[in-house]
Amino acid sequence: MTRETKPDDLFISPEQSMQVYNAMQRGVSRREAMKVIGAAGVFAAAAGAFPSISSAWAANSENAPPQYGGRIRVAAHSTSTMDTLDPALGATAIDYARAYMFYNGLTQYDEDLIPQPCLAESFENTDNGSHWIFTLRQGVTFHDGKPLTSQDVIFSIMRHKDPATGSKVVSMVDQIESIRALDDQRVEFTLSSPNIELPSILAVSHLVIVADGTTDFSNGIGTGAFKCQEFTPGVRSVGVRNENYWRDGYPYLDAIEMVGISDEPSRVNALLSGDVHMVNNVSGNSAERMKTNDSYQVKATNSGNYTDLVMRFDQQPTSRPEFREAMKYLFDREQIKRVALRGYGEIANDQPIISSSPYYFDGLPQREYDPERAASLLAKAGLAGATVPIVASPAAASSEDMAVLLQQSAAQAGLNLNINRVPSDGYWSNHWMKHPLGFGNINPRPTANILLSQFFLSNAAWNEAGWHNEQFDQLVIASRSEPDEATRKQMYADMQTMIHEEGGIGIPVFLSDLEGYDARIGGMDRTVPLGSFMGYMFAEHIWWKG
Amino acid sequence: MRDSLFGLVLGRLASSLITLLLVSLVIFAITSLLPGDTAQQVLGQFATPEQVEALRTQLGLDQPPLLRYWQWLSGFATGDLGRSASNGMDVIQLVNDRLPNSLLLAAITTVISVPVALIMGIAAAMRRGGVLDRTLNLITLSMVAVPEFLVATLAVLIFAVQLGWLPALSYVSTVDSLGAFMKVYAMPVLTLCSVLIAQMARMTRAALIDQLDSAYIEMARLKGVPPMRRVLRHALPNAIGPIANAVALSLSYLLGGVIIVETIFNYPGIASLMVDAVSNRDLALVQACAMIFCGAYLLLVMLADLCAILSNPRLRNR
């Protein structure tokens, strides 16, 4: 929906774009800044000056300004006693959403995943990304009244480097060598190797800022828009409006209750009966069902989540390049999208970066379903008529359906795939990357570089296929310190070409995140392509029209 | 007679302790056999080996299994249930949060289902072969045959989604009046009752018919004892033993076996706590839940046996 509003944006005057720019400098996202102008446009219309702008905005901003007050209940797809308010341990959507509710990062993503100022009111790097200085916003306090200082930042980030913390983002903070307080409001990050994407990394939910020395996180004391009133792992949490929130005018809601309902039909039924107002991880079938009723809206976000076929380089028969290439030609991608995803997805081309990313390379020809070609490749690999096991599990979303479809298309090329279904319990530690042919599922990463570093670098712990390419490794590292945007894009294009041509993973489709919500919730046209719930950052941006 | 009864209870308690000990051993062994350990489960898909090692040391998973079992057992014996490995909270607190919910749901279901089931069973036995018996038979058989997830889902679709009378989820915390209480519990209790009533009613009918076929009832009938008195005064006391056993078995299911109802209605009970604990390999929590289920089961069975003994003069006066 975001993209559809773009044409109207062109009609703003230079003064207005300056207004937007200034507002964004103050930490307001672009969309919100545009709303400022929307209001200005109405005044202008009263004076008869800019009628076209005002009508465009009246039609576009959901006809009504945000309202204050109200309490909603949100149900996420997964909950257990493992739920945590320690941002470092966040593991599922409900944890991420709570982290952004109760805490803030130094930076935050906007709708194009560009890092914007948040707790840091500005940031700069001095030498292509080895040293970074973040200036903290003045007058920010934690929920318990303690003011935010440089020490909080140092503690919040450096604790991830201690293995005992059990942080989920160790690989991202490894490159941070040290953090130094220049004074009470300024900190300097020193990286082991330059990375111009540091501000993007610092916006992830795991790296939000907690108070110095915190050991007990169960009260969720942060600087966020909501204060934690109640938190019971596996049951629910209640966040109430933080009256002292540093961002003026936010949040809109008085309270948000978050629960987890792991059973998908129950989750959808709870929405349809009005017990909850927003749910994530809705199946394609349920989405069709919801669309028949005007009281509910379905939102599909393609944020780059993919389920991929992993073909190990260190095992037979997947070590043979012809076999790997043949498998990529055996995906009937249209069929997988239609059947396994009920149409809620995007055809992929064995390259892990989605088309909405600024680094997406569109010069690669789409690999089509071609059983003849696959058959000749298999014959070349000496595997015509072979029987190969393939491991699928509910843990890797839709992988079972994909395996069945792949089995049918492989039969066309004379290859017998034996589907070995394993339970999701323990899948990631015991099966993922352990079989010659199996499935993985990769959640969206905030930047292309993080994705490529974590899953394709030769020495990466989760180098799914065990693929080694020195040239690729050099490009990943070099792109981090490349200041020129065009050169960087070219580097990413080269890297995607390598993965597409010789990599050991096949990505047939990207899976859309589907969520359903009550039509009385306002502000839902904002999309952050990072996951459901507006990239988990919905809490302060939505309002209740009921 | 008091002494023998007292002795029986004592003996039962002693054997219960041994049973609990054996169960805890078996559960410890099985949990250790499950693929992946707590550290891997807690850290998830993207853990590094160093982190897994650090967490293992922190949780004491690097110690030999027997030592870990002994540590748990000695703690348990002194009333220390340990800490949950997955979120660091005390197990006793986690259980305290959930157990009252489960007990409340079980109590409401019991209060409704037991009288209804007994009345249905007795009525069917008295009118054996009649229209009433055949109707009840049809109803109870279909109730047994329909799985509870179907009952629950249909109830939600009809009463919550279509009619909007009842909430689709059971939130224990939002109850502030009797009306709200009844609304919240209506569907979970209905679902559980539909399964339990059918089972108990059929067992009651079978036990009673067994007695009604015996010679002394024939005698009572020949003497001219009216049917109602024949069933309630003569046959029923002799059928209490089997009925109590059937009721005990059904009720023990209410604590640990209601996972489907807890999942569909998002009811924060102890069964889902145990499922979480198993999937997180959270041993202390698994053991605590297992001990509760097992203890409740043993207690109910013992109560059923006591009922049988006290209701039977031959056993009572031995």
Overall description:
- The complex is a heterodimer of chains A (546) and B (318).
- By secondary structure, chain A is α+β, with helices and mostly antiparallel strands.
- Chain A is globular, with a radius of gyration of 24 Å.
- The two termini of chain A are 22 Å apart.
- In chain A, strand 4 and strand 5 form a beta hairpin.
- Chain A is built from 19 helices and 20 strands.
- In chain A, helix 3 packs across helix 4 (51-60) and helix 11 (321-329) runs antiparallel to helix 13 (371-380).
- Chain B contains 14 helices and no strands.
- Chain B is globular.
- The mean pLDDT of chain B is 84.
- Chains A and B meet through helix 9 and helix 15 of A and helix 2, helix 3, helix 7 and helix 12 of B.
Topology:
The complex is a heterodimer of chains A (546) and B (318).
Chain A: H1 6-9, H2 14-25, H3 30-46, H4 51-60, E1 71-76, H5 93-102, E2 107-109, E3 115-117, E4 120-125, E5 131-136, H6 150-158, H7 170-173, E6 176-181, E7 186-191, H8 198-201, E8 226-232, E9 236-241, E10 255-260, H9 264-272, E11 278-279, H10 284-291, E12 296-311, H11 321-329, H12 333-340, E13 345-347, H13 371-380, E14 387-392, H14 399-412, E15 416-421, H15 427-430, E16 437-442, H16 448-455, H17 470-480, H18 485-502, E17 505-506, E18 509-518, E19 521-522, H19 532-535, E20 543-544
Parallel strand pairs in A: 1-10, 1-11, 14-15
Antiparallel strand pairs in A: 2-3, 4-5, 5-7, 6-7, 8-9, 9-10, 11-18, 12-16, 12-17, 12-18, 13-18, 19-20
Chain B: H1 2-33, H2 38-43, H3 49-59, H4 65-77, H5 91-126, H6 131-145, H7 148-162, H8 178-212, H9 215-223, H10 227-256, H11 259-264, H12 270-279, H13 283-311, H14 313-316
